[in-house]
Design goal:
about 425 residues, alpha/beta, Aspartate Aminotransferase, domain 1, Aspartate Aminotransferase, domain 2, 2 domains, seven-stranded mixed β-sheet, 12 helices, about 35% helix
Amino acid sequence: MTDLVERRRTLLGPNVATFYDDPVHIVRAEGVWMWDAQGNKYLDCYNNVPHVGHCNPRVVNAISEQARTLNVHTRYLHEGILDYVERLAGTFADPLNTSLLTCTGSEANDIALRMAQMITGKRGMVSTDATYHGNTALVSHLSKSNIPSDGFGLGQYMRHVEAPDSYRVYDPDGQRFAVRVQEAIDELEASDVGFAALIVCPIFLNEGFPEQAEGWLKPAADAARRAGGLLICDEVQSGFGRCGSHYWGHQKQGVTPDVVCMGKPMGNGHPIAGLVTTAEIMSCFRNNFRYFNTFGGNPVSCAAAMAVLDELADKDLQINAAKIGKLAAEQLSLLSDKYDVIGDIRQSGMVFGAELVLDRDTKQPASGFADRIVNAMRHRGIILSRLGRYKNTLKIRPPMVFGEDHLGLLIDTLDSVLAEIPVRP
């Protein structure tokens, strides 16, 4: 293990992140399970990239068969990308009916921002202060904690608004958040920059996925539209049925975005991503930008992505997400009756977790304790993480094939660890 860490540092550079105090050397995976080099088995309660399960046979076969036949870029005609986009667009409401495919969610979000600039003639973007939308020079500025030290001169185009927090901030209908968005819009409009778009994850997953009533985002979306800007929904984490109640997170919020971006789960680990938008926006972008992506939408990627859609439909995985999420919330609530350190329970389909606090009255974040819990669970064979502004909310976001038995193992192990790990070291 030490040799691997040293080799990473030498070959990949310093400060390359690994999970856990004691990193895991994973060598194979299947379904919701992963195995390390020593043969230890881990329940994956974290990874949304293998959306329909690690090494899913249908996806693996689709990749293999297409790679054996043809793999070229999209300047040659091929039915694969057309069949896939047609199927993908069918999961959206009109007028979201045209798509552009990329390799990463970062690229998709970058293009969405350029579309907003093209349509509005302005460059100002609004996002939350506790989010993450990717790694390109432009998109990295949407994440307040991810802005490069030299800034690339792009900071003037970004405004960050307070992320929603259903545990500490009373905002049942989204009006308070909308006011903050309006203030950011007004600030941009008063400058030479102007306002082009509001970009959010519709379930605010990185922000700690706060509880929200259906339609909570609509007041902020209306503010963006009144100002002539676009609403961009980054559905990299919330899409493809994960919310359970809806196929896409924005549908749960009762809004229709101008652009929807997607990524990681789309090809179950194969690098395909993209966006869906309106014909008007796509036409404006295509006529004003010469955009080409060698690997975006290639036949192998599209075969993998189509297989994911087939698995989601044939295995009723959206229904499974709703069922497991409901059970998870119930079982986490029972744990909160036993442990005062659990301050709040969160759940949106196959995303669930608990916010840990040192005191329920003051709601002081138990960030250090959350870190110790995550590391202790890793040593008990459970893979999960933590997120939110204070990094004190357990992030449980497993593959969509996660079942009741898996949930039972997770809850039992978490119960045991909460009983053993001291809240204060």
